[in-house]
């Protein structure tokens, strides 16, 4: 872990307001439908917990998948995504909404949506709290996006640096020796 400091980037209040807004959009989009929310662990666990409590209309079920795409303390994707833990139910005749913390290179979300599509669900949508479009290597457009952010490495509200800082209530930029990465 390189020497670093943190600087607040998105406050707890801004996160709260955005989650309410995303919840409204999802309620409208899936009105009257049964929905399976698939959280991508570990990064999405706090976002997902807040988001599902804003979903009033549809009959909502939840499931989780665990993937890993990072190596050690690197802040860049290794490009190879591994499915560490799968969903424990079939997806046929189900509307699936994947909930991700952040879309960066796009490797993870492309991999996951492919894995889910071959199981023939009724639909596959993606809701990402954060999106870094400038870093995209594999093209992907999410259906619901919280914040579009610049090319900075961020932590908190579920996101980590080398396993740390997931518990922060806000989202902060990691500055390495005073420089943002
Ligand atoms: P991608 O495969 O490069 O799109 O990366 C997606 C995954 O990388 C996310 O689900 C996060 O777990 C992680 N990630 C990407 N950018 C950041 C960041 O700025 N902070 C923390 N984790 C990140
Ligand atoms: Mg993740």
Describe the structure.
The protein is of the alpha/beta class and 181 residues long. It has a domain at 15-27 and 34-69 and 81-151: Rossmann fold (3-Layer(aba) Sandwich), CATH 3.40.50. Helix content is 20%, strand content 38%. It is built from 3 helices and 10 strands; from the N terminus they run βαβαβββαβββββ. The protein has a 6-stranded mixed beta sheet with strand order 4-3-2-5-6-7, sandwiched between helices. Strands 1, 8, 9 and 10 form a 4-stranded antiparallel beta sheet that branches. The chain starts with a strand and ends with a strand. The mean pLDDT is 93.
Element order: H for helix, E for strand: EHEHEEEHEEEEE
Radius of gyration: 16 Å
Sheet with the most strands: spatial strand order: 4-3-2-5-6-7
CATH class of the domain at 15-27 and 34-69 and 81-151: Alpha Beta
Helical/strand content category: alpha/beta
Q: What is the number of beta strands?
A: 10
Oligomer: single chain
End-to-end CA span: 13 Å
Give the helix tally.
3
Spans with pLDDT under 50 lasting ≥5 residues? none
| Main pleated-sheet profile | 6 strands, mixed
What best-fitting shape do the alpha-carbon axes yield?
globular
Strand content: 35-45%
How confident is the prediction overall: mean pLDDT?
Answer: 93
Bound molecules: inosinic acid, magnesium ion
CATH topology of the domain at 15-27 and 34-69 and 81-151: Rossmann fold
In the CATH hierarchy, the architecture of the domain at 15-27 and 34-69 and 81-151 is: 3-Layer(aba) Sandwich
Q: State the share of residues found in helices, binned by percent.
A: 10-25%
């Amino acid at each position: 872990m390189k020497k670093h400091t943190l600087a607040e980037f998105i406050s707890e209040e801004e996160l709260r307001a955005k989650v309410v807004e995303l919840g409204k959009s999802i309620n409208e989009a899936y009105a009257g439908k049964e929905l399976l929310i698939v959280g991508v662990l570990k990064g999405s666990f706090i976002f997902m917990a807040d988001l599902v409590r804003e979903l009033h209309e549809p009959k909502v079920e939840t499931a989780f998948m665990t993937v890993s795409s990072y190596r050690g303390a690197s802040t860049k994707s290794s490009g190879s995504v591994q499915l560490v833990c799968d969903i424990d139910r079939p997806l046929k005749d189900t509307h699936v909404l994947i909930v991700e913390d952040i879309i960066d290179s796009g490797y993870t979300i492309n991999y996951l949506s492919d894995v889910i599509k071959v199981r023939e669900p009724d639909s596959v949508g993606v809701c990402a709290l954060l999106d870094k479009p400038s870093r995209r290597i594999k093209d992907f457009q999410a259906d619901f996006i919280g914040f579009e952010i610049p090319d900075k490495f961020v932590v908190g509200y579920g996101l980590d640096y080398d396993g740390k800082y997931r518990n922060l209530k806000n989202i902060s930029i990691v500055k390495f020796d005073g420089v943002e990465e």
